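Thread: "does anyone have the structure for this chain?"

Original post by V.I.:
We have the sequence but no experimental structure in hand. Need at least a predicted one for the grant figures.
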Amino acid sequence: MHWLMGIVAGLGVTCLLIVVIVVGSFATILGGGQGGSAPAPERPSLARSFIATAPAPQAPPSPDIAVGNRVIELARGWLGVPYLFGGCSPTGVDCSCLVQNIYGAAGIRLPRVAVDQFNATVPVSDPQPGDLVFFANTYEPGISHVGIYIGEGMQINAPTTGQVVSVAPVFTGYWGNHYAGARRVRV
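Reply from O.Q.:
Generated one for you, tokens below.
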């Protein structure tokens, strides 16, 4: 009888470890994490994650993590779609309609044009995954381009004619030269 209880306990521990690994892997995928040879970011220990601390007041609040993850998941589904100025479908899309469609699929209504999306959101100095990143003076003066921040200085956007929806740096290169700020959608 003791050996049977030992086997059951061992199976229970094994199942728990498998669940922890699967949930961790799934969270990494949804959070936009990447595999590869880059060192993994330091994560808090399980014991520390249960210590309650009062967050410092911030304005505006961080986006709901579930909403940010859902937005990024939806955005990844658009990767490879051709850019089409004025386009608003999976056969061709421009930057602001990409953002409008993705947020709409997450249950959040946004205006159609990048400058109107800029005006409908609130500024943030430290963008979080799911926030919008805006660019100015790209093809016209003022706010003229928008992307979805996915973390680690990267965005998903519909760049320009001849290109496809893709992942690109926010703060360096062409986009860095035109960066106008990050803004948060009110949920």
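V.I.: this helps a lot. Residues 28 and 118 are 29 Å apart (CA to CA).
O.Q.: and The chain has five helices and eight strands.
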